Automatic annotation (TrEMBL):
Coiled coil start-end: none
Stored Gene3D superfamilies: 3.40.630.30
InterPro entries noted in UniProt: Acyl_CoA_acyltransferase (IPR016181), GNAT_dom (IPR000182)
Protein name per its UniProtKB record: N-acetyltransferase domain-containing protein
Any one GO MF annotation of this record: acyltransferase activity, transferring groups other than amino-acyl groups
Length: 189
């Protein structure tokens, strides 16, 4: 399959581990830490500027387009997504998203998803990514989720494992670079 995909054009990205956390049986080491998160909060649409700043300072090239997509998601499904941001000395330095099923799906399946975790490079290894994960765990529990899952890069998987997440499988993302079509020539007069 991998060979067929590459021959068709998509390029493989870094393999990700899918991890899950049973929110009904959180380790004491996690529940104790939920009370001491520091300056981490769920932001509104205006606060997406802070998440965009984190993305840009983390080297993401599409941070403005991502902000637009996230604002649209917040407007269309206000209960379906939260963005949590950690601040250090008033500046946004780490963040991540929490997706909650809407329309009764939470009651039926009980699963929520973590995504988009990132930390400004000069603030890494200070517990800020962990703080944003803990903040999102707390929000998922408050929303009634039973399970939390995440696709994690090799840099995040060990951190998530220390919080009780268990590997269940892996994914291999592929990206197809699409070249925009040239503009159409002007119509003849």
């Amino acid at each position: 399959m991998a060979r067929a995909l590459r021959e068709a054009g998509p390029e493989p990205e870094e393999r990700e581990t899918v991890l899950a956390l049973d929110l009904r049986e959180l380790p004491a080491s996690v529940t104790d830490r939920l009370r001491t998160l520091g300056d981490v909060r769920s932001v509104d649409v205006a606060g997406l500027a802070d998440y965009e700043r984190i993305s840009r300072e983390s080297g993401r090239k599409d941070s403005a387009a991502e902000r637009t997509r996230l604002a649209r998601t917040m407007a269309e499904q206000p209960d379906g997504m939260q963005v949590h941001v950690a601040y250090r000395d008033g500046a946004p330095v780490s963040g991540g998203r929490l997706y909650l099923p809407v329309g009764g799906a939470l009651e039926n399946h009980g699963a929520a998803e973590l995504a988009g975790g990132r930390t400004v490079p000069r603030h890494r290894r200070q517990g800020l990514f962990t703080a944003t994960v803990l903040s999102r765990i707390s929000a998922a529990v408050a929303a009634g989720a039973n399970t939390l899952w995440v696709d994690a890069l090799p840099t995040s998987a060990p951190i998530l494992g220390k919080l009780g997440f268990t590997p269940v499988t892996w994914t291999q993302p592929y990206v197809l670079a699409v070249t925009p079509a040239p503009p159409a020539p002007p119509a003849a007069a």
